[in-house]
Design brief:
Order of helices and strands: HHEEH
Strand order of the largest sheet: 1-2
CATH class: Mainly Alpha
Number of strands: 2
CATH topology: Arc Repressor Mutant, subunit A
Distance between the termini: 25 Å
Strand content: 5-15%
Structural class: mainly alpha
Radius of gyration: 12 Å
CATH architecture: Orthogonal Bundle
Shape: globular
Number of helices: 3
Helix content: 40-55%
Largest sheet: 2 strands, antiparallel
């Protein structure tokens, strides 16, 4: 049974961008700001003291299972 809140397409994209940017993080004030705040509320991202957003361990798990799952070869 699926028990995680649904991620809108824009928030899925914002979560993916967090994986792509890595350690530098995403600055606040960009167009995906509302999604980054939503992801933060869900525990999938966090805003650092410098104001940039980074992915959390929960966000990495969600990304791996829902956005970019690794396909096992048969």
């Amino acid at each position: 049974m699926w028990n995680q809140p649904y991620l809108e397409t824009c928030c899925r994209s914002a979560l993916h961008r967090l994986t792509l940017v890595g350690r530098p993080g995403r600055p606040d004030g960009l167009k995906d700001g509302p999604c980054l705040k939503r992801l933060e509320g869900m525990g999938l991202a966090r805003q650092r003291p410098d104001g940039r957003f980074e992915i959390t361990a929960a966000g990495q798990d969600r990304h791996a299972t829902e956005i970019a799952p690794i396909k096992k070869s048969a």
